[in-house]
Structure formats: structure tokens, C-alpha cells
Amino acid sequence: MAAPILVTGGTGQVASALAAAGGAAVRVVGRPAFDFDKPESLVATFRAAAPWLVVNAAAYTAVDTAEDDVEAAYRANRDGPGALAQLCRAADIPLIHISTDYVFDGAKGAPYVETDPTGPTGIYGASKLAGEQEVLASGARVIVLRTSWVYAPTGRNFVRTMLRVGAERDRLRVVADQKGCPTTAADLADAIVAIAAWVREGWREAHGGIFHAAGTGETTWHGLAVATFQEAARHGARVPTVEAITTADYPTKATRPADSRLDCAKLASVFGVRLPDWRTSLARTIDTIRTA
Length: 292
What we know:
Blueprint: E1 5-8, H1 13-22, E2 26-29, H2 39-49, E3 53-56, H3 70-91, E4 95-100, H4 123-136, E5 142-147, E6 150-151, H5 158-166, E7 171-175, E8 179-180, E9 183-184, H6 185-201, E10 209-212, E11 219-220, H7 221-233, E12 241-245, H8 265-271, H9 278-291
Parallel strand pairs: 1-2, 1-3, 3-4, 4-5, 5-10, 6-9, 7-12
Antiparallel strand pairs: 8-11
């Protein structure tokens, strides 16, 4: 049997999408068999799988909870990925590590490029930034993919929450002063599979480092909510009124970046990969949800 692509993250959105996109070439692992809180499980899983490539899609993603659960966030987002990178270095195989737009403070006022200064506004972003630094310093062949506003037909995400709450209420209040690039897990998985094909042909120095990988185009959380209901209406769903509010109107424990749009030109230049327009992918996702 050919060596697989080992994907961490268990039943998470990106790991599940990679399982669908990669088919038999992908082996997905997650807790309890693979657990960043149990370093010995990493070694055992790695040896049993004998992969040619690792994709780390495992992370602590509860943005607000992380503010009070700092050690757990850093174990999952820094220490675990660092240990995984060391295993990849020792085996001389590449690692693709998934990171986030929340490494930025959102104050630039324009889409971020990979070389822009970072400045996370909360523990989640800070722990993910520390994870980037850890894997890049490992000596392994590493590709860091920063993505944003990820959602899928399954799991806990903004789009599914809007559909659920919109079915229960006539009016919703959604933040309209935070900008970003919505990204489907399926599109990100397709991008990773395409990158893997390039890497398998032969590693080049240009392949290593940080890349931005997000849906094409931009919107706000309010814009994404409105678009979600517009797409759901094609399937007969009721459409609530979506009131635009400010971040100050909806305080949260963690501060989110006000404008975390990502410039993904480097990904297109090096790998020839560009994720689809976010509206197209949203429509496809809603179709999947409503016809399931």
C-alpha cells in the first residue's frame, strides 16, 4: 500500500473535507488515538501510518473560551504542532500546517500579505502564531496555510448557526464592522490536495513558508448572514430580518480583528491555486445542507 497523507483533526471540518477530497490517499486521525495532550500518541500514530506528507488540521479553535483556557490553547496550537513538526523533520517528510487570519490585529485597512507584521488580539490568535513559529523553526519542510472564516455543511460554524437561529427567529442582529474572507472547508481541502501534488513532484525552496489560502472576495459577518439566507431562500427557507450592528453592540470575551482580509496572490503564484469566489462556494454549501 502506498504511503498515505496523514491528516490530523479527527472529525473536524477541514479534516473531514480532506478525507472526502483525498479519498484512499488520506488517513485521518484524531482523539483519543491521536491527542496533542498525549505526546506518546503522536509517535505511535506517526510510526503506524508511515506517511509521506502530514497535514495538521487539529487545533484549539474556541476563540472566547481560549481566553480562560490559555494553557490548553497553547498545548494544542503550539506545543502539539511543534512536536509533530519534529517528527516530520526526523522522517524527512513535509508538513502542511493550518493557521488563521487571527494572527493579525485587523488594523491594516487592506488585505494582509504574508510578510505583514502580526499582532494577535487574543489568546487563540497568539497561540496559533506561536504554533506557526514553532513549526517553521523545526527544521522540517513546512508550508503554513493561513485561512479564515471556515465553514462546512457539517460541524459548528457561522453559516450553520445562522440557518438554525434564522429558522427560530424573525429578527437577528449580526456584526457588520468586521471584514474577512469566508472559506469553505471543501475549497481549502481541494487547495491542499493540489499543493500536495506539487510537493510530491519534488520539493522546491519556494514551496516552504507562509501562504494565505482563503475564499476569493470579501464580506462582513452581516454580509455573510444575509447571503446565507438568500441562498437558503432558494430552497424555501424563511428569511428573517438581519439587523446590522457594531462590534461594540455585541461584546465578546476575546477581541476579534476588525479587518482580517487575506491577500492570496502568493499561493496562486507559487502553486497555481486560487480558491473560488466565496458566494459561489456558499451557494454550493447551502445546496448540500438543504438537500441532505
